[in-house]
Amino acid sequence: MYIFRSGEFSSAWMPYTNFVGTRRMIVNFDKTHLSMSIFRHANAKDTQFYRSNLDAVDFNRANLQKANFTKTNITKSQLRSALSIQNAQLPDETLGRDLNLIDNGPATCNSSLLGKWKLITGKIVRMISNIDNNCVFILQSFDNKALMLQHINLSQVWDSHLWPYSQAILFIQMTNGVSIQLSGISKNGKIINQRNLSFIEENITMRLHNEMHILEILVEFNIYSNKTQMNKSWCKDMEMFIDYDIESEFLQTPIRGTPTEIYPTARWQQNGSIVAGGNGRNNRLDQLSKPYGLYIDNDQTVYIADTSNHRIVSWKLNATIGELVAGGI
Fold first, then answer.
1. What is the pTM assigned to this prediction?
2. How far apart are CA 197 and CA 219, in angstroms?
3. Which domain holds residue 130?
């Protein structure tokens, strides 16, 4: 596997180049001849292909999120073969969109069919909004409450080994009276992570964990005034996709754990406990030297940028020695 932290290949002649499985941060292929090259399973997020020759380039299962294909000859077939084209700049200057992981039902709006949504309680229908003529899910006039849920099988859309630093992003528009709960669930039904979204927010993110098998979206509707349709709760434009590369955010995240956030107003115990290091400054795995940044994972594992030792180490909960993650050679 190759890693490009940065790369400048503009105006280069690079046909038949093999980039299979490449991981990168910032790469510039502007005006580069890349015909017949292979980017299969490569992470080309944010990569610049402006005016490049992409004739017969293999992008099968490549991550092309936010890539720039302005004035290139990339084809629709090449784009369809990619893992993701979310927010990529396409040749026609539009933004790429991945297939919505949420099934909201048939395109015909005035229907009681809710796609893959399972109605738990109450009555919900799809109808045209009298505000903007968009299709909405709305609570029936004779109900005070309703619940519906949908499951997304992660194994069909995400490979935890190829894309370990990934997150699910849920977008939705909704009124007061609607609340969303997003849960990451293991094969045996254990809740790995859970996040909530209120009507004052427009999106929610969840870091994916290798034990997650199902993403569950639970939507609750409640009446919030009187029983006129104007005050019935509704939601629309429910959309979910996966960001397959948050590695840079992972390496730069301040003190933060999922699902627990550490707020500026948090109160701390007067006497803390050592969770990593504490055995002097050196390069043994039970030592640190000028640790700069850290990240706390879902299972309370602490990842530390051990700068003077040029490495990243992880310390599991209650561990007395760290494990080498990267560098340190």
1. 0.69
2. 10
3. 118-246
